[in-house]
Design a protein that fits this description.
The complex is a heterodimer. Chain A is of the alpha+beta class. Helices cover 56% and strands 15% of the residues of chain A. Chain A has four domains: 180 residues, no CATH class; 148 residues, no CATH class; 210 residues, no CATH class; 169 residues, no CATH class. Chain B has one domain: Rossmann fold, CATH 3.40.50. Classes of the chains: A alpha+beta, B alpha/beta.
Chain lengths: 766, 251
């Protein structure tokens, strides 16, 4: 029986090739995507390393103090610490600009962290592009840092400091400490751990070296986690797309293969073949097809994958250094696919092997009669003939049509979905950026300092406003609304309270309610508003206590005198980065003068040269001041989305390419199978042109069936996604599917000659 | 003479889209060893259903089937039906039903391969049977390159190679011209003479039926008459006459 399996394969060259191609492509796509996932992850780690250096931990003093003697030695001796680099950072005066200055002891880790390449010797200085631009500096120029004259040896082209409008220079640690009149001691260290060591274990050991040490593990950074989460979600979508479409494609081609031999298996059964015999034949075929297809897919992925990744490294944002294919894991995946394919093929073959020989088929069922009746009375006669001939074929080739439908659906959904992800991703920033420019300070400030800076900024940009929040709750505490007290998770710990200038927020269109005075108004954060079921215009009842300095949490509230105040909700803030309740600065509820620790963010609609220079000069007072434009963030975000969308489209279009060829073959087979019927139509007097028209109607219906089905699935999937995500339905856009439609029409057009020849009686006779 | 197969009061009811359809309404028949039996009937008379049941490809709704004198309640019921087909029955179809991707020799040897015969024996028996049906020289040809008559010879060889007790033929000459049809029917007679082969031939053609020893006339799921062929008579005319009489009887 086995050799019949082989013989069937060699005799059905086209089908065998289609099966091999689909298995090959499925393996290729899955293995490539798997490797892409890990390469991207590693690339991202590399990018993180570009920011934080090729290190696993950043060690510094929580109060920015110098390291005690022997700390560096102790870090070096810590079990699991492979490499240690160190240096000293401080703010210095460089040509009358306050500059973040890193004094380094040259090392690979320091170089990767600060992205410089040349050695920093005695009289050299490296400057970032922002400073170089503002001071018109070039390599070889002299600059003065704290009275020391140094020569610019390198300009950093892509440092993160410049992106946040921060000046930065790199000098030797000795020079920096000398210029500051300090002992030459480090105040930061970069640590790389042994690969086999656990991240937390080494972190704990480092922490044990000093209670006040601040140890940051790069992999634990929120930014890293957030982006990796998004990235993993995206990869999951991609894998679902590939596995679904590739699976359908393999299934459809193999089902065609089984169908081709269905008649023969019936004959074999009639001659006494058992299910086992039939399975042996198809199992042999499946084994050969899957083994060859999987091996080829694996080999091409391994050999070609790296080349493709290197070729598109910049488009896909991959670090060339980390592009390595994981042969072992890829092999395991290939074996997994091989097993899955064989199981599927065997299961499908088993269903066919079950069929009994030469059974009498029941005549027309009610369903068929109804279908025929509907078609007969609702379509023109030619269309009736076309559809009537087509429908059984559609049923038999449903897997092919599902493949086309799946590709269409994913194209349809992915376009809307990526658009939505981009929108969501941007809306995160949009909610954060209350205006075009956001100016932040990592340190807390007093209310007085805030108003001073506000005044200065306002002198340059009239629409400047700020949002300040305080974790202090000594003077006032909100405890929520009494009737919801039992469920109130804010009870007892107070809200994070914020203040802002609401009239400016109105001008910046952050809030929509115009008031003469906002004294009795409040802005709630989205989660708070939803919790209380409040919307703009509703009244929020604030409960508060006077002077709570000695009160310890909720039990002690009960004994305090409570006040209430009704406030009108004038706005709801979407970003969770801001306070839960925001008052206007004119609110008498606050005694601002007593509050010291405000985290503040300033906003303005644009920055010009004067504003920039003002901000730079403010750095003398607040060295940690940094600012960024929303449009830059938007650009960065769009770039990432474009890369991801490019990948999804590349995968989908590749699948569409293959699926289309499968469709074309199945359409050809359909026409061949029905040739006798077309000839009969000719024989009974229907003209050549009219038969061709009937055939074209059939082809177009066969083509559109998958696409329309895909669009319908897409609409349902989109509706489900948006319903599930509780968002608005985005509307339907057919544009992304037009590419697939055009390609399918092009494939259909290649049948022109074929269609022309089919009803040609003369030709058939010859 | 012992009966190869005997059917008693066979009923077959199909469920046709929810409506029961009785295709056979109490059919009884027997086939003696070395006998050729023809079953004649018009379209829709139940010929194919009877053939499916005889071929153990379908089970009866009611009735008894004896194979080699033994009552077989598992006739047409899988998995026994597969064994019955493999060991006792050979099939010849109107459209030959050859596997086009295989050569003549491979097609013919299939039943032996399915029965697990040794390779040497398969080769030897295949050559013998091909010689018997007169197409030995075509052994390695593709079946698609053969004429209709040759293809039917391959089909007959395939049906006979396993030495089945019963050869079932469904309109075996339906796709052939007159002369080739005569040749094929002569082959059936030769097999009967040389091997004592018992056959049931389903047909609507009196010429084909004239080669049989006995003819049963089937109408609307019932046997309406029987005709015993006599040597030396113009059997075709007699058969036609008998057929007309039956037609008249049933209106």
């Amino acid at each position: 029986m086995y050799r019949f399996g082989v013989k069937f394969l060699t005799k059905s060259k086209k089908l065998t090739f289609s099966c091999l191609a689909s298995i090959f492509f499925a393996v290729l796509a899955i293995v490539v995507i798997y490797n892409f996932y890990f390469i991207s992850q590693r690339s991202y780690m590399e990018n993180i390393k570009d920011t934080f250096g090729d290190c696993d931990y950043l060690v510094s003093d929580a109060d920015y103090q110098d390291f005690p003697e022997n700390l560096i030695e102790n870090i070096k001796d810590t079990k699991g610490a492979k490499k240690v680099s160190y240096g000293h950072w401080a703010y210095t005066n460089v040509e009358d600009h306050l500059v973040y200055t890193v004094g380094v002891k040259d090392s690979d880790m320091n170089k990767s962290r600060y992205r410089y390449v040349s050695d920093v010797t005695e009289n050299r200085i490296i400057v970032n592009w922002k400073l170089a631009e503002d001071l018109q500096l070039d390599v070889g120029n002299k600059v003065t840092m704290e009275g020391m004259e140094l020569e610019v040896s390198e300009i950093l082209a892509d440092d993160n400091f410049s992106l946040s409008n921060l000046y930065m220079v790199i000098v030797s640690m000795d020079n920096l400490c000398k210029s500051q009149g300090l002992d030459i001691v480090p105040n930061y260290a970069l640590v790389k751990k042994e690969k086999k060591e656990g991240l937390n274990e080494v972190k704990e050991r480092l922490q044990s070296l000093g209670e006040n040490l601040d140890i940051t593990a790069v992999e634990e950074l929120d930014d890293y986690q957030k982006i990796m989460k998004g990235f993993r979600g995206f990869m999951k979508i991609l894998v679902v797309v590939i596995v679904t479409v590739a699976g359908l494609l393999v299934s459809s081609v193999f089902v065609s293969y089984l169908k081709k031999y269905q008649g023969d298996t019936i004959v074999l059964k009639t001659m006494g073949a058992r299910k086992g015999h039939i399975l042996q034949i198809f199992f042999t075929s499946a084994m050969i097809l899957s083994t060859i297809g999987c091996s080829l897919g694996y080999l091409v992925a391994m050999v070609g994958g790296r080349g493709v990744f290197l070729l598109f490294a910049s488009e896909l944002e991959l670090s060339k250094e980390v592009i390595q294919m994981n042969a072992g894991n890829s092999f395991c995946i290939t074996v997994g696919i091989w097993i899955a394919i064989n199981l599927f093929l065997l299961f499908t073959a088993w269903r066919y092997a079950k069929k009994l020989p030469l059974q009498m088929k029941p005549e027309k069922t009610k369903e068929t009669k109804i279908r025929r009746w509907i078609l007969f009375y609702t379509t023109k006669k030619d269309t009736f003939i076309s559809l009537h001939l087509l429908i059984p074929w559609i049923r038999e080739n449903i897997f092919f049509l599902f493949t086309i439908a799946a590709i269409t659906m994913f194209t349809f959904v992915s376009s809307a979905f990526m658009h939505d992800i981009e929108k969501n991703s941007l809306s995160y920033y949009k909610n954060l950026y209350l205006s075009e420019v956001m100016i932040e300070n990592d340190e807390t400030m007093s209310y007085k300092d805030i108003t001073d800076i506000q005044e200065k900024l306002e002198s340059q940009q009239k629409d400047t406003f700020f949002m300040a929040e305080t974790p202090e709750w000594g003077d006032i505490i909100a405890v929520g609304i009494p009737d919801k007290k039992s469920k109130n998770w804010w009870d007892g710990r107070g809200f994070s309270l914020g203040i802002s200038q609401m009239d400016r927020l109105y001008e910046a269109k952050v809030i929509k309610v115009k008031k003469e005075s906002y004294q009795d108004c409040v802005i709630l954060r989205r989660d708070v508003a939803d919790y209380y079921g409040l919307k703009v215009g509703d009244t929020y009842t604030l409960e508060y206590f006077d002077k709570m300095e000695n009160v310890e949490w909720v039990e002690e509230y009960e004994n305090q005198e409570k006040h209430t105040k009704d406030l009108e909700v004038v706005g709801i803030m979407e970003s969770t980065m801001y306070s839960e309740i925001v008052f206007d600065i004119t609110s008498p509820l606050f005694h601002f003068s007593t509050l010291e620790d405000f985290s503040v963010t300033f906003f303005m609609s644009e920055t010009d040269k004067q504003t920039e220079s003002l901000l730079q000069s403010l750095r003398w007072e607040i060295p940690t001041l940094r600012w960024q434009n929303y449009s830059d963030v938007e650009k960065q975000n769009s770039r990432i989305m474009r890369e991801r969308y490019f990948m999804i489209r590349a995968v989908l279009y590749s699948l569409a390419l293959l699926g289309g060829i499968g469709w074309l073959n199945s359409a050809k087979t359909m026409l061949r199978d029905k040739r006798e019927i077309y000839l009969t139509l000719r024989r009974i007097g229907i003209s050549d042109k009219r038969v061709q028209k009937i055939i074209w109607k059939q082809i177009l219906c066969y083509l559109m069936f998958g696409i329309v089905l895909g669009i319908l699935f897409g609409i349902v999937a989109e509706w489900f996604l948006y319903f599930y995500m509780e968002e608005e339905f985005p509307g339907i856009s057919i544009t992304p599917v037009l590419g697939i439609l055009a390609y399918m029409l092009m494939l259909a057009a290649t049948l022109w000659r074929f269609v022309k020849d089919i009803p040609d009686l003369e030709r058939i006779r010859v | 003479m012992s009966h190869i197969i005997e059917m008693k009061n066979i009923h077959k009811i199909y469920n046709n889209g929810g409506e029961p359809l009785e295709a056979l309404k109490g059919v009884s028949l027997y086939l003696e060893e070395g006998e050729i039996l023809a079953i004649m009937g018009s379209s829709g008379s139940g010929k194919s259903t009877l053939l499916h049941i005889l071929g153990a490809m379908d089970k009866v709704s009611e009735g008894e089937i004896y194979l080699n004198g033994e009552l077989r309640t598992d006739y047409g019921v899988e998995p026994s039906a597969t064994r019955i087909r493999q060991e006792n029955i050979g099939f010849v179809f109107q459209s030959f039903k050859l596997i086009t991707d295989l050569s003549v020799e491979e097609n013919v040897s299939l039943p032996l391969i399915l029965a697990g015969e040794k390779r040497g024996k398969i080769k030897e028996k295949t050559r013998q049977i091909l010689r018997l049906v007169g197409i030995e020289e075509k052994a390695n040809s593709s079946v698609t390159r053969l004429s209709g008559g040759q293809q039917q010879r391959v089909a007959i060889a395939r049906a006979l190679i396993g030495n089945p007790k019963l050869l079932l033929a469904d309109e075996p000459t339906g796709n052939l011209d007159y002369n080739t049809a005569q040749e094929i029917m002569q082959l059936f007679l030769d097999m009967k003479e040389q091997r004592g082969q018992s056959s049931i031939i389903v047909t609507h053609d009196p010429m084909i039926a004239s080669f049989a020893d006995r003819i049963l006339f089937l109408h609307d799921g019932r046997f309406m008459g029987e005709y015993q062929n006599q040597k030396g008579e113009n059997n075709i005319d007699c058969i036609l006459e008998k057929f007309r009489q039956i037609q008249k009887k049933v209106g």
